[in-house]
Design goal:
about 750 residues; 33 helices; 24 strands
Length: about 750
């Protein structure tokens, strides 16, 4: 089995689900760790794979069933199991039965529906309406004629046979022997309160391979005998209030979905309801509607809970950020005093998401020492270019020095110039004295802050606004990289992916529209200048590693410019071709998005792609990532690559002119046959002796055959003196063997 889904984002959950299904169908129910260990094999990716499985919200396959901490194939667990149901005259007439007795065989029915068996989904079900049955959710529609000839009150056994159910009558005395086993399952389930029929009995089948292999009494009758009511598909033991049980179940599911404690779910639900009320324009009786139990909001004040609930509400896209902000302010006004800091932070988070940075900062300031507010206020201070305030705020956040923002703002803390006198002109060029300008508050010139500006925009790419587009580019970037989760993590931080999404993908322009008002004026002007720059292909003319500069010639415009880039100065050489965005940065030109090497043979194709208005960010990443692809053993036409060589003895000394007409102008008796940017064949003429000789090289047999035919046509007296045809796959194997 493959675990490519660890690094192939395009495979995703579907591929993983297919592998899990194959495994649990063969081995039975397995835990996440057991599945991960089996699928990972000896790759060492078991922990990453287990996390990936746990992160899947919806496997999307009807046959994959979750049983507590195990996953199972529903079809495999229920194969050949039998459940019974006592039919009524109306059920016989309509072939529509109460489904509670047999739902365990059908709740994840997969292709059962294709064979005529399906659960009623709702009142618009055309089949059930046509049969004259009152719509209800606990009905199962059977193929017409399934119950023909059966008497009312008869016990029928439904046995799962592949993708069909076999219904046969059974006598009451034939099911009595299996009664104790069913009693035990029902009694054990009832001890925990209300329970779902389908889940509990499928789980019981998974635990006991011998259970329900022979007919047993209908499980609804066994439940009734124990005083258990069955409402829909829910069994309610004596003394259990159904509505309370359902509420508890819903709250438990809600807590799981949000990743918060159950005691915080009432407050979270009340907060969501309040936001909906505000968004719908509600104003009346706010206190009576939402604050009759104000202490329910206290559970949300835990910072970890607050972050999960707040981020879910703000980032869901369901609510207007102004509605969230105003709802949070109602909690400040009517909620308990201890919840005000949380509510102020939530109001600030909503305002910031709505690009109202000034309002957000005021709300965060009102939250006092509440650390989520300090953290988010530090981020806005960083955007404003105030590294001193940002670090001051982060110093008050638990473990704030461990976050990536801390490293950034630490790099831009003011540094005084000890060699500069207090009364000398300031280093910044303002003309003012140093003591009146930057002494004690020294900021960095725009040349140095360009990297900070780039980082501010890049840090927004991991949010919900751009995560989907980022994932698509990551998929294209890793397609030829070393398999494994590490490649995916590296691709999310990859300079090309980031830069292409920012500029060709539109994220930088979007950032400037939304956050431009927050940026320092000179950074905003610089950002606008960056948007006017197009990506191009450059030839490296010169490298000065001592000054960290490279001189680049734009292949498009044939203009040269000196660029400051530490990485490029250390890794490129004169004559190299690179693809990059060269942007202004104060008094310098820089490449904050990095650069990609370019093969000379692909330069024209790349320039065409860069000039194509229909080209996407994904197209560009895919093109520039092709350099990582292993040597292909397949030609462009799909034929296997074969290294073909041939040597002709010629008789016609006029052949050079004919070769030029067929294959283009030669260069010192050498002709290159090109098809777009692909070299198809190379021909070399040797006039040194008699007869003249012509050598031919091609990379597939079809091309080679065409060239041979042309030469025979041009010089009918020529003789093919020697030829070889070696598959490239064999050459690669030989080369790898020699290298090892």
């Amino acid at each position: 089995m493959s675990n490519d889904y660890l690094y192939r984002a395009d495979l995703g959950d579907d591929a993983l689900t297919a592998d899990i299904l194959r495994l649990v169908r063969a081995r039975g129910p397995l835990s996440t760790d057991e599945i991960a260990a089996e699928l990972a094999g000896d790759t060492g990716n078991a922990d990453d794979l287990a996390d990936l499985i746990d992160a899947i919200d919806d496997f999307g396959d009807h046959d994959l069933y979750t049983l507590g901490d195990r996953l199972a194939s529903h079809a495999a667990v229920t194969a050949d199991r039998v459940l019974t149901h006592r039919v009524t005259a109306h059920e016989i007439a309509t072939d529509v039965i109460g489904a509670a007795d047999v739902i365990a065989l059908t709740s994840h029915h997969g292709t059962l529906a294709e064979n005529g068996y399906h659960l009623l989904i709702g009142p618009d079900d055309e089949e059930i309406v046509a049969r004259g049955v009152e719509p209800a959710a606990d009905r199962m529609v059977l193929p017409r004629g399934t119950l023909a000839g059966v008497e009312p009150g008869t016990l029928i056994a439904a046995r799962r046979r592949g993708d069909v159910l076999e219904f046969t009558p059974v006598a009451d005395e034939d099911v009595r022997a299996a009664r104790p086993a069913v009693d035990a399952v029902v009694a054990e389930a009832a001890e925990a309160g209300a329970f779902d029929f389908d889940f509990r009995f499928v789980e019981a089948m998974a635990d006991d391979p011998g259970l329900f292999t022979t007919p047993a009494p209908p499980i609804t009758e066994v439940a009734a005998a124990a005083g258990i009511d069955v409402v829909g598909f829910t069994a309610v033991p004596p003394g259990v209030d159904l509505e309370s049980a359902r509420t508890g179940s819903l709250l438990s599911e809600y807590a799981d979905d949000l990743g918060i404690p159950e005691d915080a779910t009432l407050g979270a639900a009340a907060l969501v309801a309040l936001v909906e009320f505000v968004q719908d324009g509600g104003t009346d009786d706010v206190r009576a509607r939402f604050f009759d139990n104000p202490d329910q909001f206290l559970a949300l004040t835990d910072p970890e809970v607050a972050l999960r609930v707040g981020d879910t509400i703000v980032q869901s896209g369901e609510f207007d950020t102004l509605a969230v902000e105003n709802a949070a302010l109602l909690v400040v006004e009517h909620g308990p005093r201890r919840a005000r800091a949380f509510a102020r932070w939530l109001a600030g988070t909503a305002a910031d998401a709505g690009d109202r940075a000034g309002d957000a900062e005021r709300h965060f300031e009102g939250a006092g020492a509440y650390w989520p507010a300090l953290r988010d206020a530090a981020r806005i201070a960083s955007e404003r270019g105030d590294a001193v305030r940002a670090m001051s705020l982060l110093d008050r956040v638990p473990s704030g020095e461990q976050g990536p923002l801390y490293d950034v703002v630490a790099e831009y803390q003011p540094v005084d110039r000890p060699g500069l006198g207090r009364n000398q002109p300031c280093w910044c060029g303002s003309g003012r004295k140093y003591k009146k300008c930057h002494l004690g508050t020294s900021t960095y010139p725009l040349t140095d802050r360009a990297a900070w500006l780039y980082r501010k925009a890049a840090d927004t790419l991991g949010g919900p606004r751009w995560l989907s587009a980022l994932s698509e580019l990551v998929t294209g970037r890793v397609q030829h990289w070393e398999p494994g989760a590490e490649s995916v993590y590296r691709a999310f931080e990859d300079g090309l992916v980031t830069d292409v999404l920012l500029f060709e993908g539109g994220a930088f322009a979007d950032y400037l529209v939304r956050r431009g008002a927050v940026l320092p004026d000179d950074e905003k002007e610089l950002a606008e200048a960056w948007l006017a720059v197009t990506r191009s292909v450059y030839e490296v003319v010169a490298v000065d590693s001592s000054a960290n500069t490279v001189t680049l010639r734009d292949v498009r415009t044939d203009t040269s410019q000196e660029v400051v880039d530490v990485v490029a100065a250390a890794h490129v050489r004169a004559g190299d071709l690179i693809c990059a965005r060269v942007v202004p940065a104060g008094t310098q030109l820089q490449m904050p998005g990095g650069f990609e090497p370019v093969d000379a043979a692909r330069t024209d194709a790349l320039l065409t792609l860069l000039d194509d208005p229909a080209a996407t960010a994904g197209d560009l990443v895919e093109f520039l990532t092709a350099r990582f692809a292993p040597a292909s053993a397949v030609a462009a036409n799909g034929d296997p690559l074969v290294a073909c060589t041939g040597t002709f003895d010629l008789t016609d000394h006029a052949i050079a002119r004919k070769l030029g007409r067929a294959f283009g102008k030669g260069d010192h008796d050498r002709w290159t046959w090109r098809d777009d940017d692909r070299v198809r064949a190379v021909l070399r003429l040797d006039r040194a002796g008699e007869p003249w000789q012509l050598e031919v090289d091609a990379m597939d047999e079809d091309t080679f055959g065409q060239v041979l035919a042309k030469i025979s046509e041009f010089d009918p007296g020529s003789v093919l003196r020697a030829q070889t045809r070696l598959p490239v796959s064999e050459l690669l194997d030989d080369h790898q063997g020699a290298a090892s």
